[in-house]
Fold Phosphatidylinositol 4,5-bisphosphate 5-phosphatase A.
Amino acid sequence: ITVVTWNVGTAMPPNDVTSLLHLNTGETNDVDMIAIGLQEVNSKINKRLKDALFTDQWSELFMDVLSPFHFILVSTVRMQGVILLVFAKYYHLPFLQDIQTDCTRTGLGGYWGNKGGVSVRLSIFGHMVCFLNCHLPAHLEKAEQRKEDFATILHMQQFEGPVANGILDHDLVFWFGDLNFRIESLDICFVKYAIDSNVLSQLWEKDQLNIAKNTWPVLRGFQEGPLNFPPTFKFDVGTNKYDSSAKKRKPAWTDRILWKIKPPSKGFGAGGHRPSQGVLSVSQLCYCSHMEYTVSDHKPVAAIFAVQFASKVDKPLVEIYVADEWSRPEQAVVRYKMAVGFHRSSWDWIGLYRVGFRHPKDYVSYVWARSDDGERCLEKQLCAQVMFAEEALPKGNGEYILGYYSNTSSSIAGVTEPFQISLPRSEEGSSSTDSSGSSSEEDDSTLVLLAPKSRSPSPGKMKRHRSRSPSLAKFQGLILRPSSRDRGTSRSPSPQGRRSLPRNIPTIHLPQEELGHHGVKSKELGQAAGSPEGSLFYQTVQEQGGLRRVSADSSLARADPRNLGLLPALRLEMIDQALGRRWENADQGYYPCRRMSPTSPPSCGTSPKEGHSP
């Protein structure tokens, strides 16, 4: 397991982070998981708005760099400028379960998230492990405040489930981040002399964290490797020189990585057996800073651990069987077998991934794992079977992987080995004709999607590449109107949000049933959304003041699950076009519908003379 911490000081990402992650070395082949903790990621309002639409640039960078090495983003959590990313090799995904995240604000008395902690906890081969990334208060005299904040984080963060409800209840805890501990007593001249003379051991006994580990009960049991690298704070940005400003801050090891193994329980365990000693062992193979990165006033710190479990779960919850090669569409048959005790859901699905995919929602195609005899197969331990439609299969040659995504656990419960797909490419002429035909039928209607909470990914086939820094300024003369449903959604980084919608959106044929201006009420919509099927999607189209509804049998109701709730719904209009239509309606004494939220009834066709707002 590799752990990295870096206070990036609101800087833009560097071009290359391979040395930071210890890639292109012999160590990479042995690393199974990577946890990356960032602090002070730019969280100004304009950056947060952009990150709400697209994945933040730091997360994009790490996914881009790690995916060629078969690392998949398992989980991520963000609290303002504090981000935690956890990656793992794709073949470990079925054995990473019970994934949960939490965050605790400690800035401004707990109301501001510039300081605090974010965590990802999960079961790794049946053992509970927690990664905790913290940014604690700064300055030499705030040592007691750092202790109180850390104790608050440990107390506040609680997880669901029968085991490991608190952070320290986990079998193994990695605690890292900008912990902001300083060097006491010694003046800056002696500290710099010890650094230049490479006698760092003379500074260790005055390090506040080393002192606290021996005196603070809350830190009892936490371990750290020797600090054989220079203090990582504070540098002049763009250089390897310590602070030369008027403040001349004293160098300090503010960026740290520690771990704690849960002590074995006393007495007798289940079955009357005394628990074995040494169930879990951790060895630190590397603990170093990276002076080559100068974009921040902090230097990043990395550590590599060898973790040895006494036992491990080595059978996945879902086993998937597939042919070695798909050369014909009729070969795209998937058989799968679920383990006893697996909590199957009707919203589970099987994704087809290209080798080198970035996260569980980064699939090429999918098929619902809904089999008529699914429950019988689960009870009798039989194989269920589904098939990919021909139009859903990728054309050309390539290596792919199948993964069973469990909606209950929000994780991949089974994967296959890579296999080959070799299907002939379709004629480009027909695709271009289809594209032009569909675009000619488009209108300027407003599309609002009303649906239950999304169970998986978002409509359509997504592009694989896009700029890490999308700029809205290039769309001159456009109005961006987010739907009110998305205004309150989480602004945490979402890997699903990075990909743009497809250019060729299938034409949706609407039923001809016309409803009056007040024919659909919010109560009726609420009843429809809460129907037993749970998969009804309604489309409200504002067209000449009328409303139309799409039934559950339409193609919209069967939309790709890449999740209709993760991508903001936007309406793009030319300014002249939008204003022209508004002026035309005003001249006629008619005011267009205005929907305050996707679930509220429209207020249409009234003029100010009637006592209503337009």
About this structure: Residues 318-371+381-423 form a domain with the Immunoglobulin-like fold (CATH 2.60.40.2840). Residues 268-277, 428-559, 561-579, 589-614 have pLDDT under 50 and may be disordered. The first helix runs from residue 45 to 53.
